[in-house]
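Please annotate this fold before class:
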Amino acid sequence: MGLAAACVLAAIAVAWMFGGFGSSRPNLAEGERLAGLYCGACHLQPQPELLPKRSWEAALGYMGFWLGMQDLSFLDDHPRFAQINVESRHEVLLRENAFPSAPALTAEEWAALRNYYVTSAPAEALPQLTKPPLEWSLPRFEAFRTSYRPVQPAVTTLVRIRGAAQEVYLGDSVARTLTVLGSDGRIKSGPRRFRPEITPVDMEFIDGTAYLASIGDLMSSLPPEDRPAHIAAIRLVDGGINNATSTVVLDRLYRMADMQPVDLNGDGQLDFIVCGFGAIAGNVTLHASQPDGSYEESVLFARPGAVKTAVHDFNADGLLDIALLVADAREGFYILQNLGNGEFDTHTIFETHPAYGHTYFELHDFNGDGQEDLLVVNGDNVDSDPYNTRKNYHGLRIYLNQGNYGFAEAYFYPMYGAFIAKAADFDADGDLDIAAIAFYPDFTAERRESFTYLENDGNLRFSASTSAEVMRGRWMMMDIGDIDGDTDIDVVLGGGYIPVGMFAYMDQYEDLARTGPPVLILKNTLR
């Protein structure tokens, strides 16, 4: 195993440690030292307070696999669904030939490391400390359902508003379909299948063509090196997909989370930046267009876990730089400075522990100083443990641009399981408001916070509101835009009814899968 692979293994391991022990209690200082050695070597070392004791015990199972430890007897008192969840990770490592050939530490050292985390961890998840009041009424939006009714529970992996046509495009990666709704919520086209089969996660409209990114393997059941993802160009006919044809532009890509079609080198041709999230392996690649119509691939970031990129000239040198959010192992935000001639210099903006769960970001000028700031979301809760543990550090943050690749956190809104946040001037008062969804909300709460509208009161102060209607769905996707031509900004929510993250709450899952709306349109009441 190479150094890079070893770092990835140890890195993912980082967030997960704890378990039961025998009668001997190795001292905490030795356990902490071992944690720094085996966890902190390749990513930020997680602190015990990040998870409660029970969650650390399950997470320890994942950690142990990366270090060659197979004994899961410390999980004997956990529910069977939790044991199965942990055991499945072992199968993945074996499939990928990533399981170490020999243990990285002794059984005594492993016990000391686990003891440090479990003993030091809180009994229960730490509460949110700075949560502002949440108003349970949503006068800014009027919610209504659509005529879209999939045969099976919706797994909406794409929602894209095409404002020019007053349409909403919906992609379902289980049904492998693309559907188009009109502004009235009625189906205009589809559900439509294409060849090769699509598993839509991203879409951009450019000059009569819809570029569609397919993840290829939604549940990560295939080896990463199968590279199942692809990008297709759908040539719209009469502005729609009814008679459209699809042509593969790029294939053999790692499981894809995001694509950016952009002329990065200024030659008038469309290039593609691809976030190959992957699994054990992945990368970020640039596919530069060539005169003969082919693409030349170069690796910009040789690690898995990339969830999104955006382009902007951060240093005003006339070249487009690439902002990048990474959500695996050494999670963090990076800016790839464009040096020209296909060369980039990586600036680390921040890095976080591997339980952070980054999912999304956008570039916006929140304070009106002419510089792009960061709106960053973290709330992915599927990897840390089987219990959908509440994490008080989940939510959305605004980092203000200080210049010279420096950013400072200026606002945090705690939101369990936050997934996507989009900023726009929803109330047309001249500042940026925020709409946010949570795919992993607190399922133990009487009223889940699945969608929140944050209205900007000025000076980075926001008032939070939601409604019972939007609570009825489990929202995986969201887009914003003017869907009805009245010039205000509407919201479309896409439901994702899969049991991931809900194995401890299967009654709720089955109810949501049966009754939850596949799509919900929130029409702005401003006009």
Notes: The CA atoms of residues 382 and 501 lie 5 Å apart.
